[in-house]
Known about the structure:
The structure is a single chain. The protein has helices spanning 21-25, 40-43, 49-55, 74-79, 82-92, 98-106; strands at residues 7-11, 34-38, 65-73, 111-113. It is an alpha+beta fold. A 4-stranded mixed β-sheet has the order 1-3-2-4. The longest helix is centred in the middle third of the chain and has 11 residues, at 82-92.
Amino acid sequence: MYPQYDKVLYLDCDIVVRGDISKLYNINIGDNLVGATTDEFVMSLPKIQPYFTKCLGLDKVSDYFNAGVLIMNLDQFRKQNFEEQFVDLLAKYKFVVQDQDYLNVICKNKVHYINGSWDKMPCVENMPLNK
């Protein structure tokens, strides 16, 4: 994965950046695989929360991160054989929120949680599933 880079930013195509993106890039995530925010949507839906601990094996629901904005430590991805782990999981399981669930399983306990302002969903409290 891009051997010339040790660190990259990943942003979903529907992200709007309203400031200096270098501030996000310059966050030190140490030896963690990713820097990410807790998924606000998941936290707002108690009925689906057991999936994240029972099916994905996360210690607590608040460990589940949103993969729309990521600081990716490619050096650590390579050292931890990320690609091999991903292919193994892909062959064994079909997760609900595909890329995000696979990332959460592989990156378990290797996430630096960044300020939630970097990955806000505009209407979480008004979502129809919340009612």
